[in-house]
What does this fold into?
Amino acid sequence: MKKMVRAAALAGVVALALAACGEAPEEEPPGDTATTEESDAVDFTGCMVTDAGGVDDRSFNAAAYAGLTAVEEEQGITVQLVESTSDADYAPNIQQLVQEDCGLIVTVGFLLGPATAEAAAANPEEKFALIDSTLEEPLDNVKP
It folds into this structure.
């Protein structure tokens, strides 16, 4: 039961972080009654890097991914997942997502803290969310 509550809370945090990174929708001009599915699409990509436990770890990775996919279904965002298999994957995986025009890059696990800090410092225009950790030196573009 405790794990379910924790997973639900984590999914909520991820959803709120994604919502906070969005922009206010532009107002449609009067008389424009576009009702196509395309007009309802959200132009936002939520990206995630797992720690070495992978997305099926039944813990932080799984909960964060469940949160992202819930927002994908509810809001129509695009989700991109990169799974790490070892510590050596963290920095390259984050860098890969920096190049993918993500609206938010979620890094999961305290082991990704140093790689997230390095990428965030080098890319101040990118937004990061770090799950299960904080940075020694806070950065404006990283929210723990």
